[in-house]
Amino acid sequence: MPRYEDRHGSTRLYVGHLSSRTRTRDVERLFSKYGRIRDVDMKRDFAFVDFSDPRDADDARYRLDGRDVDGSRIVVEFAKGARPPEPAARSRSPEPTVVNSPPLKDRNHSLSPNEKSPMPEKNGQSPKDQENGNGTNGQDHTPRDEPSP
């Protein structure tokens, strides 16, 4: 009977509590003793190690969990959740795609004083005045020198 609870044949391990001195090559060297490694994804204080064979991943987890590496006691367990897409499958688009967004030239275009707004005003009223039913054409008729009643 296998030593692990993983019934799906996972090959990806989470390695936590890594020392700030631990480098990718150190993780590769340590884990490669247990089988062929497909990938090491190193983060700040943790890493993901992907083995080719789930039995090798299980052996590494069993033997390395709780071991002292570079002065830190590491945690090794099967990774949870879905795996991120492979590097070749990631989009290399230079600019993110924005749905329902005008082209860049329109978004960055500012109106000069002589250009009209792309949203014409109806009957000379601003959109706010149209919503409020205010027929004042956006102008305040209260004299500024006198206090309002």
UniProtKB/TrEMBL annotation:
Gene3D superfamilies for the chain: 3.30.70.330
Q: What's in the keyword line of the UniProt record?
A: mRNA processing, mRNA splicing, RNA-binding, Spliceosome
Protein name per Swiss-Prot or TrEMBL: RRM domain-containing protein
Matching entries from SUPFAM superfamilies are given as: RNA-binding domain, RBD
What is the originating organism of this protein? Brassica cretica
Q: Where is the composition biased (Polar residues)?
A: 123-140
Q: Which domain of life is it from?
A: Eukaryota
For region Disordered, the annotated ranges are 77-149
Domain RRM, first and last residues per copy: 11-81
What PANTHER family does the annotation carry?
SERINE/ARGININE RICH SPLICING FACTOR (PTHR23147)
